[in-house]
From TrEMBL:
Stretches assigned to the Orn/DAP/Arg decarboxylase 2 N-terminal domain: 43-289
Name under which the protein is recorded: Diaminopimelate decarboxylase
Keyword terms, alphabetized: Pyridoxal phosphate
Similarity comment: family membership: Belongs to the Orn/Lys/Arg decarboxylase class-II family.
InterPro entries with a match to the protein in the record: Ala_racemase/Decarboxylase_C, De-COase2_C, De-COase2_N, Orn/DAP/Arg_de-COase, PLP-binding_barrel
Co-factor(s): pyridoxal 5'-phosphate
């Protein structure tokens, strides 16, 4: 059970001195949980189709090389959206045929590099297609190439993560005047354009809207293929990349909605998608990792302000940026442990859980009922395996925390393995131009 595994890992992290005065923040990842989610994803699609499916993990959700390595070993690939993310996938040993490059701002050099390597590329817009025309004419490539479209079906509850709104910055806006015909034309003009890509959004987008986005893209593929069959006898679109975006439940340990429920919904909404005529690519991120990460921080002080109890901890905006800046959209569950890592009990008291950064809004939770916290206690922000401690925000020059993984053993002692060591002060100085100290003094 995930909760029990987590409790034992918190205890072990403290015993193994991974959470100390020197390193008052540490992150934990549940290896068994990650494996189980990868298996659930594979099984969900295998249950509805015999077609080949590449599950490309969205690297931005968890940009750690050992995590990518584990997911590769679990049969997954990687969706990358920057030269850095591509380098991480390569460092993890992923072969080009497991990698998909998306990004709305690829440079000519990035495109040329991707085509030379043979990774799949999804173009975002007509200008990018024109660049690809020149590159494809100049050198042969093994890269499958697709076009991202925005079905403009609307957003979810979080604007910043809704990618299929009428004015989203991503892909070709399919319902704009003339756009659909231009997309069909783009395929007729380019025999190497063989994929369609869409990603309707992330957290806050309901399953039904995700499925509608996929259905719209399936219908567009059918329309393009009817046109290419008339022109050349060939069904040119052979693969549909349906993006990621499965939302995550941040309110309990329950993993819902499931990959299986989503795959079944897709099979209902667009049965033709799974009948073997199309290969598939998925790009899930948050739903593979979020439930398996725990962020630990020591309580430094406790105080009251305006009669409200506040626990001042070391985890705030640097590791929970979205929660701090947009707390209504991103509430996190908080668990309390004592200094030895034992779950705390005691009658809950409403208290704020504050971070270390120097602005008033740096709060992990406001008026949260928790056992009374004391200095030396440990707070745990749950469900933080995706987009939290791996998406560091360098405010106040606070260091990136170490990330450590635990793997279940049959009740025995558990060893935590380090995936990323905590950032050291010399690294912070170096990243702040430490080697260029006198640059402004030179005349
Ligand atoms: C962010 C992103 C994903 C992953 O989204 P999740 O909500 O983490 O599943 C997939 N595809 C693209 C193009 C993205 O930008």
């Amino acid at each position: 059970m995930a909760t029990e595994r987590r409790d034992r890992a918190v205890r072990a992290a403290i015993e193994q001195e991974l959470l100390t005065e020197e390193h008052p923040v540490a992150a934990l990842l549940d290896t068994d949980g990650v494996r189980a989610s990868a298996a659930a994803l594979r099984d969900a699609f295998a249950a509805v189709t015999g077609a080949p499916v590449l599950h490309a993990f969205a690297v931005k959700a968890g940009p750690l090389v050992p995590v990518l390595r584990l997911l590769y070993a679990e049969g997954l690939g990687a969706e990358v959206a920057s030269p850095g993310e591509l380098a991480l996938a390569r460092a993890a040993g992923m072969p080009p045929e497991r990698i998909v490059l998306d990004s709305p701002a690829k440079t000519p050099a990035e495109l040329a590099g991707a085509l030379a390597l043979g990774v799949a590329v999804n173009a975002d817009n007509p200008q990018e297609l024109a660049r690809l025309d020149a590159l494809v004419a100049g050198a042969p490539t093994r890269s499958p190439i697709g076009l991202r479209v925005n079905p403009q079906i609307g957003g979810g509850t979080i604007d910043a993560l809704s990618t299929a709104t009428p004015t989203s910055k991503f892909g070709v806006a399919l319902r704009d005047r003339g756009a659909r015909d231009q997309v069909v034309r783009a395929f007729l003009d380019r025999p190497w354009l063989t994929r369609l890509h869409t990603h309707t959004g992330s957290q806050g987008v309901p399953l039904s809207l995700l499925a509608t986005g996929v259905r719209e893209v399936y219908e567009l593929a059918e329309e393009i293929n009817a046109a290419t069959v008339r022109a050349t006898g060939r069904r040119q679109v052979d693969t549909l990349d349906i993006g990621g975006g499965l939302p995550v439940n941040f309110t309990s340990d329950e993993e819902t909605p499931t990959f299986a429920a989503y795959a079944r919904l897709l099979a209902e909404q667009a049965p033709g998608l799974f009948d073997g005529r199309y290969g598939l690519v998925t790009e899930f991120g948050r739903s593979l990792l979020a439930k398996h990460g725990t962020l630990l921080a020591r309580v430094e002080y406790t105080k009251t302000s305006g009669a409200r109890p506040i626990a001042v901890t070391h985890a705030g905006v640097q590791v929970a940026t979205r929660t701090v800046y947009d707390p209504d959209s991103w509430p996190l569950r908080i668990a309390a442990y004592d200094a030895e890592g034992r779950p705390k009990d005691g009658p809950p008291v409403d208290q704020d859980v504050a971070g270390p950064a120097c602005f008033a809004g740096d709060l992990l939770a406001v008026q949260r009922p928790l056992p009374p916290l004391e200095p030396g206690d440990v707070v745990a922000a749950l469900d933080t395996g995706a987009y939290y401690f791996t998406a560091h925000y360098a405010y106040n020059s606070l260091p990136r925390p170490g990330v450590h993984a635990y793997t279940g053993t049959a009740g025995g002692a558990r060893r935590l393995v380090t995936l990323r060591p905590p950032q050291q002060l010399p690294e912070i100085v170096a990243e702040a131009g430490g080697a260029h100290r006198d640059a402004l003094l030179e005349r």
